Amino acid sequence: MESTNVPLLILTLTILTLSIPNPVTAQFNSFLYFSCGDSTYTPNSLYKSNLNTVLNSLTTTNTQNTNGFYHTTTGTGPDRVTSLALCRGDVPVNTCRLCIQASATSLISTDNCPNQKQAFGYSDYCSIFFSNGSDVYGKVQDVQPWDVTNSVPVPNPNGFNESLYSLMSSLKVRAASGNSSLKYATGKGGFSGGRSLYGLVQCTPDLSKGDCMGCIQDAFDQFPVCCVKPNSMLSGVNLVQGSCFVQYQISSFFGNVPDFPMPPPPKPQNTNATPPVRKSKKSRIGTIIGAISMAIGVLTVLVIGVVCKRILSRRRRLRKSWMGKFTKDEVEALQSLQFGLGTIKNATNNFSDDNKLGQGGFGPVYKGVLSDGQEIAVKRLLRTSGQGDAEFKNEILILAKLLHKNLVKLLGFCLHGKEMILIYEFVANTSLDNFIFDPVSRQAMEWATRYKIINGIARGILYLHDGSRLKIIHRDLKAGNVLLDEDFCPKIADFGLARLVNIDQTQTVASKIVGTLGYISPEYATQNQVSVKSDVYSFGVLVLEIVSGQKITSFHYEENQENLLTFAWRNWNEDTARNLVDPVLLAGSSTEILRCIHIGLLCVQDCPTDRPTMSEVDVMLSTNSVTLEAPLPPAFCTDSQSLPNMLLEWSTTTKSSIRSSEGGSVNGVSINGVSITQLHPR
User: Fold this and answer.
1) Which residues, if any, are the signal sequence (predicted)?
2) Which domain-ending residue is among 107, 131, 155?
């Protein structure tokens, strides 16, 4: 009975072993990062064959190599393939080779870079790069940097940063001075509180000393962007460039990498096998014990394999969820801005009503506090809001590239399942409309404060149009999208509808009309033409609102039926412009107030070419020495129609819908400042 059960058990275990993932390969399935080139090859091409040859032979043809750097080239001309692979300097030889083999497989998989002629991949212990270029060896590879960070509070960030730079600078020199086999250095430093700091830097050994130092310095230059924050430190940072690594942690992380054994080569088949010899009882017991041990090992490996597979599957799902909204290049550029949902829930007390700052068209906004004490504003998208993936993506991609004191700062975002969340700097005084349109709050808005706000908004728009690397038309400039900090410094917000245009482009045609009732320029509403002058028009409306303290869509003056623009121009023309001014501002500078009314009227001219540019507006606001032209009648200057009625007529004419972030209703148009409404033809 024993003799029949043992072979059956061994056969069962053999089948199990063949059906589960390789335990060593599973250790390296946490493929962390990849970057693909632009040019591609076709399946079954000579390039594909050469690539397979190169990747398969990286470690197998260099069995005597023990320094963790492998390189090989195959093919000629356009089908030439060169590959470089580098392991961290403290990784044992067998572990290194296994990491490279697993990374090569992952890099060219369908989820990563399946048919690119150039690609870079990074795992926990190694990196791999291949290209069809002729000058790969001995050159710093141009690959988008990648980083992973973890932060904890620190009482003395300046002291920490000084220790960090001192340690990493010394390691840079040591690594770059290494020989042609290994350019690698590790070290330990200290900072306040008796805590330790551990660092590691490494270059591919084919680089010269100067190129190695340059690569590492490029990584160091990322520190102020991704790794150093006020009142906090990053307890661990791993920065990866194409030809070098930079890593530090406040706990030891190098010198303890496990040495995984290489799998044994397959045994040759024995064609002259002799009949099995019957074993003794003692021998059979030993076989059973061995089989049981093997079963336990197999089950352990099976569990590890399943866990690793789930982790890999989760990462792939996450990558796919990103890729559904962003391109690969956008993902790489934005990874450092992503917050985890758990972090946001902790910061906002699980989106508690006590933390709620308000409700906009996009969804609720909450105040939050991060673990390092930084205050944040969290805007949570409602799927029923009418705004979706396009606006969410647009706001992230635009604000991530902008930095100006009069623009709200985007700190990051969160994508998790159906959750789409934007994280901004916290601005203490909410939005401008909560002050100038509120009969009580606007009592405190003296002219000096309003003039400061007008100037700040102008400079923010000027930066969007001319000052940044991009040329951006906001398309939804209004009082509700201007936030005020504790010093009443204005910050333009809500870039979900913003549009990028070429630097030398004067105007473009929009596929549909979007924006807010009352602020949309006539050429945009009637002809779908959008330009920087569209923002100038909205700015002019905003200036007249700030001066009058009244909203464009609900303006009233005694029993007068005119809209705000008509009323402002008529009184300007009759030299009674003081009728427009908010009574609260009677103590303000008459010269500045009247000049702002004049500028506002110039900005709302019917023809875009009659409106000034924002650079001209900035000069007009900055000095009184510039003589202003007399304004022509503005858009919508009629005696018989109110502004909402005219907008309804536009909608009928253009067969388009105008998005409004107002609420309530006037003639079917939502105007009370809460919800988003689609405006349809009558």
Assistant:
1) 1-26
2) 131
Looking at the fold, whether 392 and 459 belong to one and the same domain comes out as no
538 with 476, same domain: the answer is yes
Q: Which residues contact 17 (CB under 8 A, 6 or more apart)?
A: 298
Residues 449 and 597 in one domain: yes
Closest among 477, 514, 478, 506 to 390, alpha carbons compared: 514
Q: Structure tokens of 365? A: 């906004």
Structure tokens at 414: 């969160």
Packed helices 564-573 and 532-548: angle between N→C axes, nearest 10 degrees: 80
Cα(579)–Cα(566) distance, integer angstroms: 13
Number of domains in the chain: 4
What proportion of the chain, given as a percentage, has pLDDT over 90?
19
Q: What is the model's pLDDT at position 636?
A: 59
396 near 322, Cβ under 8 Å?
A: no
CB 411 within 8 A of CB 425: yes
Give per-residue burial for 177-192: e unless 16+ CB within 10 Å, then b: ebeeeebbbbbebebe
State the DSSP code for 673. S
Q: Are 598 and 463 within one domain? A: yes
Report how far residue 120's alpha carbon sits from residue 334's, in angstroms, rounded to the nearest whole number. 18
Which of 211, 476, 494, 535 is an active site residue? Answer: 476
Query: How many residues does this entry show for the chain?
Result: 682
| One domain for residues 120 and 153 | no
Q: Which residues pair with 506 in a beta bridge?
A: none
Q: Which domain holds residue 199?
A: 146-249
Q: Give yes or no for a contact between 433 and 480, defined as CB atoms under 8 angstroms apart.
A: yes
Q: Are 424 and 379 in contact (CB under 8 A)?
A: yes
476 labelled catalytic: yes
Residue 46's H or E segment, with its range, is helix 46-57
The CATH number of the domain where 604 resides is what?
1.10.510.10
| Residue 127: CATH number of its domain | 3.30.430.20
Q: List alpha helices for 185-280, DSSP H.
A: 209-220
Cβ-contact 432, 480 below 8 angstroms: yes
Q: Which two tokens stand for residue 83?
A: 């590959």
d(CA 401, CA 396): 9
- Band of pLDDT at residue 669, cut at 50, 70 and 90: very low
Q: Which residue has the tokens 């190169």?
A: 54
Residue 219 lies in a domain: yes
pTM exceeds cut of 0.85:
no
Rg (CA), the chain: 33
Block residue for tokens 């939050």? 368
Check whether residue 606 and residue 458 sit in a common domain. Answer: yes
Domain identity same for 221 and 360: no
Secondary structure element (H or E) that encloses residue 80, with its range? none
Examine residue 397 and state whether it is found in any structural domain, yes or no: yes
Shared domain check, 226 and 123: no
> Tens of pLDDT along 573-615?
999 989 899 988 877 778 899 999 999 999 999 999 999 999 9
CA-to-CA separations, 338 to 22, 147, 331, 341, 402, in angstroms, rounded: 33, 12, 10, 9, 17
Question: In Å, how far from its chain's centre is CA 519?
Answer: 30
DSSP H helical segments within 369-428, as ranges?
389-399
